[in-house]
């Protein structure tokens, strides 16, 4: 029999009565012998042989395809033996309850940690003015950042360049670092 006319069982070197485990072992042995990258002796037709072995394995490893192939190979006409029932399609379900519990536990954890944690200390002045910084005016008429818990002149609404004007409800005070003007809302 020529290579082209070999049936899939002959390609793998297995018998038609072989179990799936025996078929898998025959497939692996055949691949080790002829794989183009691992064959002991390189063959110019190794790629074609490998494709034929993979085609045979993909047909014979699937019970439904194997039944159909056997029916065609051995000339069985009519109904195919239903000794291997088709594998049912089972759809996964979305774990809504698990996600709900994770969400509840997450919220509870945040609340418990909030109760048990120490209050955050207010940020210390870093000397750089920004919106929301509390300031005092020094002897040179420059805005200097201070902590908001101490007595202060006002709160910076925005910083602008020297060539710009502050809104009418704010007072323009030069930044101590020379970066521009601070538009300060005076404290009452």
Walkthrough of the structure:
The structure is a single chain. With 188 residues, the protein is an alpha+beta fold. Among the domains are: 3-73, DnaJ domain (Helix Hairpins, Orthogonal Bundle); 134-186, no CATH class. 36% of the residues lie in helices and 14% in strands. The protein contains 5 helices and 5 strands. It has helices spanning 8-12, 20-34, 46-60, 63-73, 96-116; strands spanning 134-137, 142-146, 154-160, 171-175, 181-186. Strands 1-2-4-5-3 form a 5-stranded mixed barrel. A hairpin with a 5-residue loop joins strand 4 (171-175) and strand 5. Helix 2 (20-34) runs antiparallel to helix 3 (46-60). The model has no long low-confidence stretch (mean pLDDT 83).
Helix/strand order: HHHHHEEEEE
> CATH homologous superfamily of the domain at 3-73 - what is it?
DnaJ domain
**Helix content class:** 25-40%
What would the CATH topology of the domain at 3-73 be? Helix Hairpins
**Given the structure, what is the number of helices?**
5
SSE blueprint and pairings:
Blueprint: H1 8-12, H2 20-34, H3 46-60, H4 63-73, H5 96-116, E1 134-137, E2 142-146, E3 154-160, E4 171-175, E5 181-186
Parallel strand pairs: 2-4
Antiparallel strand pairs: 1-2, 1-3, 3-5, 4-5
